[in-house]
Amino acid sequence: MTKPLEGRIALVTGGSRGIGAAITERLAADGATVAFSYARASGAAAELVEALRARGSRVQAFQADQADPISCARLVDEVVATFGPLDVLVNSAGIYKTGTIDDPERDDAVFAEQLHTNVVGVVATTRAAVLNLNDGGRIVSVGTTGAAQAPFPGIGDYVATKAALAAYTRAWSRDLGHRGITVNIVQPGAVDTDMNPADGPNGELQKSLNSLHRFANPSEVAALVAFLAGPEAGFITGTTVNIDGGLSA
């Protein structure tokens, strides 16, 4: 049986851990050749490559600093030189830093790092990718339901960066629609990752806020991304899709 992404070339940023790793694994399982980036987790990246190649997948890891636009552009160049023009771009790389607006000891460098990683780097990667993206391609970004609601104090900078991605998604869908390229964003709620473990200090509170009273598994988010990256999602674009267990109901 032909797999839905057979013959497609995909790039997943931040694809070595958490949601990004689950996306890398799912796209590879669906038949795509997958390039993924990592910033510092070289060990995790190597383990993922080894595991997926053992299953017969074509996959390769590339080191890149998501906060550096030059590094983002170089990443795309290296992937295209290795595998050819892209069919799918998944913007998954991001960091999560907290701090209230009235904290006198907040570090401006932390704010700048989050802004550059979560917004500037995504824009730089996407700009480079669209010059090497086949017509009819797919762009999917990973955001957060916090872009529409801020349920906890101290997350303003983080959710603002993700709200920017939602706005870019709508705008880019207009820019690229004439080429048949779709642009969408998925917005997870609580997902069980090392960045936000279900058994962490806020786990029970986060469970209580959604209708299903649990965390999502990263594979559930990956399944949604894979659908949006696939052939059956060709008329879905400029759209924000929440995957939050009913948090935003």
From TrEMBL:
InterPro entries: KR_dom, NAD(P)-bd_dom_sf, SDR_fam. Keywords: Oxidoreductase. Residues 8-194 form the Ketoreductase domain. The keyword Oxidoreductase applies. GO terms for molecular function: oxidoreductase activity, acting on CH-OH group of donors. Belongs to the short-chain dehydrogenases/reductases (SDR) family. PANTHER family: NADPH-DEPENDENT ALDEHYDE REDUCTASE-LIKE PROTEIN, CHLOROPLASTIC-RELATED, RE15974P. This is SDR family oxidoreductase. The lineage of its organism: Bacteria, Bacillati, Actinomycetota, Actinomycetes, Mycobacteriales.
